[in-house]
């Protein structure tokens, strides 16, 4: 069956390609598994990292997979987001399965939605409707995020940030991410707020994460290649002008309660988003952000 709803999740199986699949937890609309062969013909394999200590019961955001970050990235900075928790509420609320959008030889696609609950309104009192469409193709996974302002024309606009917090399964000490040379970024590992707010310019052809890395690249190319000796994942985006590269290494990874022992060695986070500044949405408007992940090798 291409689409199977199983209690707390929906499972997508490629209608033609045995072994290509994806699992989406309704909690946070979190993709917790994506198995696919590579374009170069490798066998289907798990392409995302989920910590063995991750909570999948809705008690806290999933440590891994593809958490959806909305309406704030990181610790909220917008005055209207003061009541929000780190990375906002999209990743720690239960989304609804709405429909199967596509089911043919090319692949399968489902739509999940999130609307304001009383708990959300208490922290973010704006009229919105979120749609998250996840599409599984032979070698690709696409995530489309739509944010609609559902208010009457008399209601005020609202502002938000959005990001796909991808945990890409890869040997952290052997990966390089391109092309980021010449791109301005903020180094969140700096010790002072002033240093963290001071932009730097990436000088490396390929960005590695051999050291604790938490870099927010602004106005980035929108297309990224994550390469290591035995693999390569490509990310192509639209409407996501920034990208975050994160790996805590042992320095901070060992202090993350739901990080499995040594987990930081087995992933790199490459997170396309709109996180430098805010999207402003007027009543009736819809914002769309998309990423396409392809297993090249
Ligand atoms: O995207 C990178 C980051 O903002 C890091 O600073 C780190 O906090 C990571 O997200 C994980 O955040 P979480 O709230 O899931 O522990």
UniProtKB/TrEMBL annotation:
Substrate binds at residues 63, 86, 91. It catalyses: alpha-D-glucose 6-phosphate = beta-D-glucose 6-phosphate. One of its GO terms (molecular function) is carbohydrate binding. GO terms for cellular component: cytoplasm. Gene3D superfamilies: 2.70.98.10. The keyword Methyltransferase does not apply. It holds the Pfam family Aldose_epim. CDD domains: D-hex-6-P-epi_like. Its EC number is 5.1.3.15. GO terms for biological process: carbohydrate metabolic process. The active site is at residues 165, 271. Keywords: Isomerase. Belongs to the glucose-6-phosphate 1-epimerase family. Catalyzes the interconversion between the alpha and beta anomers from at least three hexose 6-phosphate sugars (Glc6P, Gal6P, and Man6P). This is Glucose-6-phosphate 1-epimerase. It comes from Trametes coccinea (strain BRFM310) (Pycnoporus coccineus).
